[in-house]
Design a protein that fits this description.
Number of helices: 13
Structural class: alpha+beta
Distance between the termini: 13 Å
Shape: globular
Oligomer: single chain
Strand content: 15-25%
CATH topology of the largest domain: Beta-lactamase
Helix content: 25-40%
Radius of gyration: 19 Å
CATH superfamily of the largest domain: DD-peptidase/beta-lactamase superfamily
CATH architecture of the largest domain: 3-Layer(aba) Sandwich
Order of helices and strands: HEEEEHHHHHHHHEEHEHEEHEEEEEEH
CATH class of the largest domain: Alpha Beta
Number of strands: 15
Number of domains: 2
Amino acid sequence: MLKKRLDTYFEQLIEEKRIPGCGLIVQKKGTEIYHNCLGMADIEEGRKLDDTTVFRMASMTKLIIAVAIMKLIEERKLSLNDNLVKFFPEYPEEKKRVRIRHLLNHSSSLGQTEKSNEYAEQVFDIHDTLEQRTAKWGNMPFDCELGESASYSALVNFDLLGRIIEVVTGENLDDWLKNNILHPLGMMSTGYFLSKEQMSNLAPCYISENGKLIRQPEHNALFDHVTTEYGYCSGAAGIFSTLKDYDRFTTMLAYGGKMNGVRILSEKSIEQMCTPYQITDKECQPGCPWGLGFMLFLKPERSKIFVAPGTFGWSGALGTHMFVHSDSGISATFTVSMGDLDGAASFISREIEKIVFEELA
């Protein structure tokens, strides 16, 4: 029934021109229960969507960065209590109050409202490296009292974390992630910069409007900095991946930090990432507070989300999504390339969760 329900749902979305195509992998306790790619990756070129299709993972980059930070903490190269000025000595003393834990759980009061985001936009230059970009943020105003709110920081928090990784390791972010997380997991098609072959497999972005799928231009900042030689890697977005590649990362999380004999993180670190911090003040959606990089579905019914309590996951701006429920061993990775699905609030993600948990839980 799971395959029939999912295939029927996706085929309906494609027929109604809500999406051009999509891919989904669902696993339970290490067994692949569902794996399918449907529809088109590129309508204009007539290119079908398959396991080689490359997607912009957008904010699902943040999960990889969060795991990287926790790995460096395990190696005693970082601490959750390290402050910003330790890594950005040019920053004013007031930024010492911001700790790595604040960046991970979106409570830093940076990049959370128009106040600080407008500042970031004013100093933004597409040609900046990650180092140059974050160096400009020392005088960024706080949005509110530190730790008071956990409004989603779409860019600033995780770009700072990405730069911290570079400072601590002395390596380019893309190189360090590949050497220490991506390649050990077998994620050979994942990274910030694409080969010519990968570029030819990239899924363009569409929106659905009046029963038609409209291809979006490739010339905005979100896309430009990851398809050129500017040398900019973002901790907040920018990773490219395939369905099978990113599902390796999802599977590693589902198995408590280990996959196919390769341990990336300890189970203790995964548990720490899945622990809510001051739950009443730091919720992404009602009943869904922040952990360290993840959204935690603790009381999902409050947001009309049909997953088992204890599920964790996150999404990307173009509709990609992943979730894990460790107790039942259920995990899923979803890929699509749509600019109008509203990220973590995507109706497609909600329906996938509902079907999967109704059939497997």
